[in-house]
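User: Second chain of the day. Same drill as before.
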Amino acid sequence: MDYICEEFTKPNDENDFKITSAFANYFYDLYGWDMVLNKETEIDGIIYPSVQYCHEGLNVALDSRVVNKGNLELVKVMKSTMEKKNEELFMETKTEFCKEIKNGLIYW
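Assistant: Same format as last time:
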């Protein structure tokens, strides 16, 4: 997993996410014996460094079966405005958090 993380968080082809998605789906489908926990396990999600935030932030990819259980609750929403500084660099210029989430609607 460390190798995959390092290889696919480098600024490469913008289609690399398709490869990482294939790896994630492979791991989600992989049911196996966890030698540390000494029991059968399954993977619910993967956390990896954010390329957009130069490895300072994290991305979380959840398996669809986890999302479809209906146990997740949206509690906070943030939107950011990004400005392109040059061919390889984007900078966040504005961040806004929602004021409220009510009845499935996001209020800014």
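Residues 73-108 form one domain.

User: Great, on to the next one.
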